Amino acid sequence: MKKIFFLVMSASLLLASCANNCENAQNVDSKSITASLAVQSGIKISKTTTNKKEGKRVLVISSSPRKGGNTDLLCDEFVKGATEAGGNVEKIFLADYNLDFLSEQGANQPKEINRDSSEIGRIINKFLDADVVCLASPTYYMNVNDRMKTFIDATFLAWGDPKMGNKEYYYITACAQNSTETAEWCINGFRGFVMCTENPTERGYISAISMGRPGAVAGTEYMTMAYELGKSINN
């Protein structure tokens, strides 16, 4: 007889917060079969910035498995555009770090964890200090990949910190399949995290499809789109 195991992590406070955000859902013009999360999330979606400060701190988090991979190349173009727009930009390549999974202690007592003592904790501190965050992951099994999910889960260590909120977000994914709907599942993976933060604003995203070959995105319109997204941080 086949045995099925379910691993469940209880985070009622987090789920309650996400549910509260959903009550303020925005109308999103999308025909995607996965658009329901975007519609229900309560994330403000704006083509113009809600933060007019100069020298915005911009954090680009690339979870590409290889430097120079399709997702990572798009990140570099975003960095170029954001830098030209006057942003104080830092790119983090997650594969360069030893990322710790969220532990039982971290889940139950996040405020008692010294974030400065681990690489993932120091990345979270950079995230907290950012005004603009670009989350980038290839599409794996209709979602973000392992490194990105590890980072997302670890942000629970900063739960309750007011600096978790009021950020502007961009998303980037590269998908091997020639399917906008498949890539949209990954975009909604980002939204599933962002919707649980306070007062987020989604500024734009790129879903680069049919990018199965390493470096295939080079020279495509997606590179221009990533550059223009980066340039839009102050628009």
Write the layout of secondary structure elements.
Layout: H1 12-22, H2 36-40, E1 44-45, E2 57-62, H3 70-84, E3 88-93, H4 104-108, H5 119-129, E4 132-136, H6 146-154, E5 168-174, H7 180-194, E6 201-208, H8 221-231
Parallel strand pairs: 1-6, 2-3, 2-4, 4-5, 5-6
Helix pairs in contact: 3-8
Descriptive notes:
By secondary structure, this protein is α/β, with parallel strands linked by helices. It is built from 8 helices and 6 strands, in the order ααββαβααβαβαβα.
Q: Count up the helices.
A: 8
Low-confidence stretches: 1-17, 19-30
SSE ordering: HHEEHEHHEHEHEH
Question: Oligomeric form of this entry?
Answer: single chain
> Which structural class matches the secondary elements?
alpha/beta
Strand content: 5-15%
Number of strands: 6
Salient structural properties:
six-stranded parallel beta sheet; 35% helix; 8 helices; 235 residues; alpha/beta
Would you kindly provide a brief summary of this structure?
The chain has eight helices and six strands, in the order H-H-E-E-H-E-H-H-E-H-E-H-E-H. The protein is an alpha/beta fold.
